[in-house]
Amino acid sequence: MFGVSAVKAAIPGPTDPRYPDTIVKPRVTCEKEGSFPHPRNCSWYYRCVDRMNIGYFWTYYFECEPGTVFSDELDQCVHPHLAGPPCSDVPVTEPPKPDPIPCTGVEGTCKTYEVCRPFKQKKLLCEKLVCPLRTPHLQCAEGYFFDMADRMCVKPPQPSTLCGADVTTDITFSEQARLTCSFANTRPYSEFISRLYCDIYTLCNNKIFTGTKELCSNYYECRREGQSWKLELRSCPVGMRFSYSEDRCQAPPSALELCN
Q1: Domain ends where: 34, 59, 82?
Q2: CA distance 27 to 187
Q3: What is the rounded distance in angstroms from the CA atom of residue 163 to the CA atom of residue 114?
Q4: Is the pTM higher than 0.70?
Q5: Which residue segment(s) compose the domain that 122 sits in?
Q6: What is the pLDDT of residues 94-128, one digit of tens each?
Q7: Would you say residue 90 lies in a domain?
Q8: Is residue 171 a contact partner of residue 188, using CB atoms and an 8 Å limit?
Q9: Are 158 and 176 contained in the same domain?
Q10: Residues 135 and 216 grouped into a single domain
Q11: Same domain, 225 and 180
Q12: Triad 30, 57, 234: Cα angle to 5°
């Protein structure tokens, strides 16, 4: 570890001249103990400490030595070329994409959906595929259809996301009430969340099946208000999806990682 330098702010903060305004405002959120990269500055990180073991966290800010950045994977300050995105100074180059296997939908098993939420698009989903290099026909798991544009198995769009749908809410109060909030379970998961917001990605390495990954466009988060909990629907930044198994937002698998 490169150590922590004395904190000196070029632009003093409102209450403590050691910290810049961009570091302390808006305040970072602590959900568990540990050290975490600052979301707005790669050279800073913060530590969350539950000093009284009651679910209330004290937040401490630290700045890395000049020329270094905080690596969340290594849990220390490192030179930029050792850090991962987005703090690495190593240029990211996209590997060449292989030509996909020319598959087409089997006639009579495909349907086009006019989707308007979260944005307007057309989706061609097929129950079965025919590929010149494979036999017999391919098909997704029960309840899933093959998205001909994104080239992966997905659940059909919910009626509330279709154009012309009279949308009120995505879940009922009875379904929402089944979610349990606690300090140990701030992002509750259930089958209806998976059904509404999540897709299953089928992963391969050199055409060898390696497993599946479930990623979600939205997720629920519990927030403490006084002596009660409040449940809020949240989403990841654009281009990312939430993994309940890893408890974080991440980029969906690339075309190279997906099974054709």
Answers
A1: 82
A2: 20
A3: 6
A4: no
A5: 96-168
A6: 565 555 557 888 888 999 998 877 667 888 999 88
A7: no
A8: no
A9: no
A10: no
A11: yes
A12: 30
